[in-house]
Recover the amino acids of this structure.
């Protein structure tokens, strides 16, 4: 998985961090972003695996399954 420094900078700017803080901690921000992406990917893989291995006769569409998880997460935040 590749995390681009430019994307991390833009994400940090969008979240309201000032430029000096971003420059000072860019390595830590990149590592943090990489860990979050890795965790999210693992979570989605497990959801898809559970959906595939499910013995249910009628399964919801896969994209709907992942979409409902995103909506539940937004409600939590």
């Amino acid at each position: 998985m590749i995390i681009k420094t430019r994307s991390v900078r833009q994400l940090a700017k969008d979240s309201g961090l000032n430029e000096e803080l971003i420059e000072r901690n860019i390595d830590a921000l990149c590592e943090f972003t990489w860990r979050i992406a890795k965790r999210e990917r693992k979570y989605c893989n497990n959801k898809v695996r559970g959906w595939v291995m499910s013995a249910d006769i009628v399964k919801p569409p896969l994209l709907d399954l992942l979409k409902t998880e995103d909506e539940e997460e937004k409600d939590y935040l």
The chain has four helices and no strands. Residues 48 and 63 are 10 Å apart (CA to CA). The longest helix spans residues 26-53. The helical segments are 5-14, 19-24, 26-53, 62-76.
